[in-house]
Structures are given as C-alpha cells and as structure tokens.
Amino acid sequence: MTFVITGGCCNDAACVSVCPVNCIHPTPDEPDFATAEMLYVDPATCIDCGACVDVCPVDAISSDFDLAPVDAPFLDLNATWYTGPGRATYTAAPFRLEPLSTARPGPLKVAIVGTGPTAGYVGEMLLSLRGIEVELTVIDKLLTPGGLVRFGVAPDHQDTKAAGDEIAKVMRRRGVTTCLGVEVGKDVTAAELGASHHAVVVATGASEGRRLGLPGEDLPGSVSAADLVGWYNAHPDQKDLAVGLQGERAVVIGNGNVALDVARVLAADRTVLERTDIADHALHALASSSLREITVVARRGAKPAAFTAGELLRLLQVPGVIVSTRSDELPTQLTGDPVIDHKIAALRSVADRPAEEGKRRIELRFGLVPQAIVGEETVRAVRFVSGEELVADLVVTAVGYRSRPVAGLPFDEERAIVPNEGGRVLEVPGFYVAGWIKRGPSGGIGANRWCARETVAALLADYDAGLLADPTVPSGLQGIDFAAWTAIDQHERSAGRAAGRPRIKLASRAAQLDVIAPAANTKHRPA
Ligand code: NAP
Question: Which of 206, 301, 332, 370 lies 20 to 30 A from 277 at CA?
Fold first, then answer.
C-alpha cells in the first residue's frame, strides 16, 4: 500500500517535513523543487504511516485503495515520476529544516504589504520565532484580505483556497495590527512605513494580465484572463467588466493553468458553480451563457505545454464537459520524461472526440501562434501566423501575469519585479519582497512558502547584524481593522450558508462598507 499525491497538490511541502522515511520528492532543497509541477510519493519507500495526510493543507493525499475515481491516474503519475533521471538515489534520511531564529529579543516591528498567501507565510514565520517579541502591521489596499486566494484561485477549486489562508490566522494573533483599505503610495508612503518599522516586506503578488501586444487586443469581446478571473471572483475593480457570453465560441490564448481555469469555469454547469463562492454576477451571467465551444490555444506543441499534468487530469474529469484534442497535433513519440509523457497520454486519450449534443466542449489546440485579434466593432476571430482563423465571440488572453510597481521602490519593467537579491530590495535598506513580485508569476501557492522563508531569513540576518534602523516614529496607520473585516467575513459566510454555498462575496466596496459595524475603525475609508 502507498499514499498518493493528487492534482490539488499546492507544493508547500508540509508533507515532506513530516515524512519519517523521506519518500516524498522533490524536497525543497533538491534542485528540481523550484520547477516541479507537484510533489510525488515514492511507492517503493512509502511506509504507509499517513503522517503526510494529516498535514496536507489541501487534502490532496489519499491512500491508493481510497482514491476517488477522478484521482485514479495519480497513482501511476506518482510512481512513474520516480523513473526519471537521478530519482532512484534519494536518501531515506528525513528532510529537516533549521528553525528560523534571531539572537535579539525585539520587539521587532515589521510591516507586511499584501494579504495573499505569501504575506500569510511571512507573517506566520515571523510570529513563530522563539524568544522574540514581534509586532506586525498587515496592510492591503482592498477591504478584504486574501489576495490570490480570494481573487485568483478558481471558484471550483475550493480545496486549493485552504493552502493560502495563513493570513487569516496571522491577523487574529496578538501583536498584529490589520490595516485594510490602505494603499502604499496613496494613503502612506513607503518611506513613512520604513520609518515606523524595522523592516517592510512587500508581497503584493502579480495582479495584472500580461499583454500580447497584438492588433485587436483592445476590441470589445477581448479580455485578459487576469480581469476575467477577477470578475468571476468578485474583485471590486472588475465587477463591471463586460464579458460577452452571448456568442457560441470562445478562444483562450495561452495554455497555462490559468487558461485551463478560465476554460473550465466558462464551460462549467450551473449546478457546479452554484456550490462555490463565485461572484453572484458571474454565476447569473454564466448560467445564461450561450457558449458551446471553448478552444484553448498554445503557440507551441504538446510537449512543452504550460499546464500541469495534475490540472490536465482534473480537467478531463469535469462532469458534463467534452474535452478533446486533435491527433495530428500530438507527438507520436514519447519523450522519456514521465510527467510530459503522462500529459501526452492524457491528451491522446481524448483525441478527436466529437462534440455531443447539449454538452459544452473544450478543445486543446497546439502550434498556433497568434497574429491578430480580428473584428470591427467587436471581436470576430483570432488569426494565427499559419493563416488559420478561429471564429471567436469572446477572446481571453491568458499569457501570464505582471506585478504592478510599488510607489517608492525600484521596478524592473521588463521582468515586472522589484529588483532584489534573495528578497532584499536592491538599494533600499529595510525593504524586502516575497512571492510573485520577487521572482515573477510562477508556481503553485505553496511554492511561496519557500520563497517567503528565504526572504524572512534575509530579514532576520540583517536584524541580527544591526543593519535595520530602529523605528523613529509610531505607525499611526488607520485602516479597516480586523474586527471590521470579521463583520464582512461573517456576513458573506452566513449569506452563503443560507444558499448552500461557502460564502456569497460582496463585490463592491460600498456593499462591504455597509456591513462594517459603525464602531469599526473606518477613518481611512477609501472613496
Ligand atoms: P503560465 O503557466 O506561464 O502560462 C502562460 C501561457 O501563455 C503559456 O502557454 C505561454 O506559452 C503563453 N504565452 C506567453 N506569451 C505568449 C505569446 N506572446 N503568444 C502566445 N502565447 C503566449 O502562466 P499562468 O497560466 O498565468 O499561470 C501562472 C502560474 O500560476 C503558473 O506557475 C501556474 O502553474 C500557476 N497556477 C497554478 C494553478 C494550480 O495549481 N491549480 C492554477 C492557476 C495558476 P509558452 O509556454 O509557449 O511560453
């Protein structure tokens, strides 16, 4: 018997840290951890103790005899991963981490900008330090914390949301001041934050869609995946996005996991979506959508497909949706890389599937380099360099994310990151970055735990070395505090309970402010 990691794996490696026989790889100190799509249990060395199951934040580990039918392919994927080069030689010595520490008693005052998963990991690591008093100020420009967990993760992936909810635990802790509705550069400057804290950690992620730079990209009917995902996740800035769902055909450009998320949500049955926390406006619009055919287009072939095997396997199991590929676009030879070969086998298993009456279809196409989005008043098609045109009533560009600059900090426009060395912002002492704004938009949520750890270790080393100036002024920041957020949270959850959903999100700032108790701290109410 063995345990099996399934498609929801978040890569946070909590399972690795508790495995007594080191049977889960890659471990955070192994070279392929940074690029691994997920983690895998070696069936040859698993002793079936179940320690990994207890700590997995997303319930992505099952015993082989207990696998849900949708997860059955992961039994083989876990095992075959170990047939890859260099993977037969792992030591059985358990992976153990040196705890983060500092020699000073504090108090150490740190501001964390952002409330997504990475901010949560940073806060949790600082609050877990032994022998030092830590005071945190947690800041977000929105009134609702959660970042990517609230606004990025697809609503039909509720299990994934559990991976990044550390921030909720952090905000509850003693010594933590929550300031929501506070924007750096508008309500407070970076310099003011620096003067009132020993250190500032910026973890604002990447919230903007990359642009293709093609003709027609700004036509009505063409939207970026970043905006569409914000729209269906009730982001206040995207709640009024015009998403044309009256036509029959959508083309999604790019084939990363975000492209698959978008295609799945566009194709999903109302009965699936109405059990999730999808924005009400999106639920209603999608319930009356006329879309029938969603084509996900990659510029390269199937071998370098950007989606992960886990997400592909999960896509193939979506009830009521036909997923298909074209056999003449798939490689005929296997590559020897177990993960790629798994993807190719899965793509072949649905090759040339015809449409079925009454069912939506997602077609995964390969080798089509986009040249222009075509249309006069609204999008009509996507034209590719090969000359082929795909008719489209809706075009979604899912070609990656970009971070936004943070006022007062340097910004590398090309890489869309704050230039840094191991998390230390270059030339701005006392400022640190973690997550996507530090290294670019890649990897599952849990990968940010290790990115955050590197940053926190750098911060502590600088603190110990006396390189962080003591705060010279009190913070004085006032935003929407934790009690006020709790009022919004409880309101959303209780509305959800009544409708059999996890929560019904309030999509506008005005609606959020309406449910905040008058006693809550609202001095810095955003307009
Ligand atoms: P991504 O994985 O980097 O995929 C970007 C896609 O855009 C690729 O297919 C890429 O093609 C394509 N692309 C880029 N420039 C293009 C151009 N000029 N013309 C045509 N296509 C172009 O990005 P993502 O999908 O936004 O995901 C970001 C990260 O979040 C990824 O690490 C992803 O795995 C992760 N994520 C994970 C989950 C999950 O675990 N469930 C869900 C969502 C996102 P090429 O490959 O040819 O460059």
Answer: 206
How many residues can be counted in the chain? 527
User: Tell me: the pLDDT tens digits for 443-471?
Assistant: 989 999 999 999 999 999 999 999 999 99
This prediction's pTM: 0.95
Q: Hey, where are the domains in the chain?
A: 3-89, 108-207+403-479, 210-400
Peptide bond into 107 cis (omega under 30): yes
Rounded distance, CA 167 to CA 180, Å? 13
Residue 164 has pLDDT above 90, yes or no: no
Residue nearest to atom 11 of ligand 1 (CA): 254
What is the third-level CATH fold of 108-207+403-479? Rossmann fold (3.40.50)
Contact of 30 with 1, CB cutoff 8 Å: no
What local confidence, expressed as pLDDT, does residue 163 receive?
Answer: 77
Gap between the Cα atoms of 394 and 222, Å rounded: 6
CATH code 3.50.50.60 for 210-400 = yes
Average pLDDT over residues 196-224: 97
Confidence of residue 408 (pLDDT cuts 50, 70, 90): very high
Is 259's C-beta closer than 6 angstroms to any atom of ligand 1? yes
How far, rounded to the nearest angstrom, does the alpha carbon of residue 96 sit from its chain's CA centroid? 26
Cα separation, 185 vs 187, in Å, equals 6
Cβ of 221 less than 6 Å from ligand 1: no
Residue 306: CB within 6 Å of ligand 1?
yes
Nearest Cα to Cα of residue 265 among 449, 99, 444, 396: 396
Give the three-state DSSP class for 16. helix
Task: Give yes or no for residue 224 having a pLDDT over 60.
Answer: yes
Mean pLDDT of the chain: 94
Residue 47 has pLDDT above 50, yes or no: yes
Atom of ligand 1 nearest to the CA of 443: 32
Q: Is the CB of 10 under 6 A from ligand 1?
A: no
Residue 523 has pLDDT above 60, yes or no: no
The band of 518, judged by pLDDT with boundaries at 50, 70 and 90, is low
Query: Which one of 3.30.70.20, 3.10.490.10, 3.40.50.1100, 3.30.1330.30 gives the CATH number of domain 3-89?
Result: 3.30.70.20
Using DSSP's 3-state secondary structure scheme, residue 19 falls into coil
Cα Rg of the chain (Å, integer): 23
